[in-house]
Amino acid sequence: MADTKDLSVHQPAFDRLREVRAQAIEHARLARQFAVERRDLMQGLIDQGVSQADIARELGVTRQAIQKMLAC
C-alpha cells in the first residue's frame, strides 16, 4: 500500500521553495547574460590596445582572472 502523507501543512515551505528556485534560475540566466557582456567589453578594450594586465589592475583582479573571464 502506498504511503499517502498529507503535505498540506508544509504548503508555505513548498511555495517558498518554488519562489526561490524560480529566482535562482533567473539569476543564473542573468549571470550568463552579464558574463557575455563583460567578455565583449573586455575584448573591445583589448582590441583597442589595452592589456589584460591593465584591465586586471582597473578591476582589482588578477590577469589570470581576466583570462578566465575572456574564455567564457
Architecture blueprint of SSEs:
Layout: H1 11-47, H2 52-59, H3 63-71
Helix pairs in contact: 1-3, 2-3
Number of helices: 3
Structural class: mainly alpha
Principal-axes shape call: rod-shaped
The tally of strands reads 0
Global Rg = 22 Å
Low-confidence stretches: none
Largest sheet: none
- Roughly what percent helix? over 70%
Distance between the termini: 51 Å
User: How confident overall, as mean pLDDT?
Assistant: 95
| Share in β-strands | under 5%
Order of helices and strands: HHH
Architecture overview:
There is one protein chain. 75% of the residues lie in helices and 0% in strands. By secondary structure, it is mostly helical. The protein has a domain at 22-71. It is rod-shaped.
Primary descriptors:
72 residues
Structure, briefly:
With 72 residues, this protein is mainly alpha-helical. The protein has a domain at 22-71. Helix content is 75%, strand content 0%.
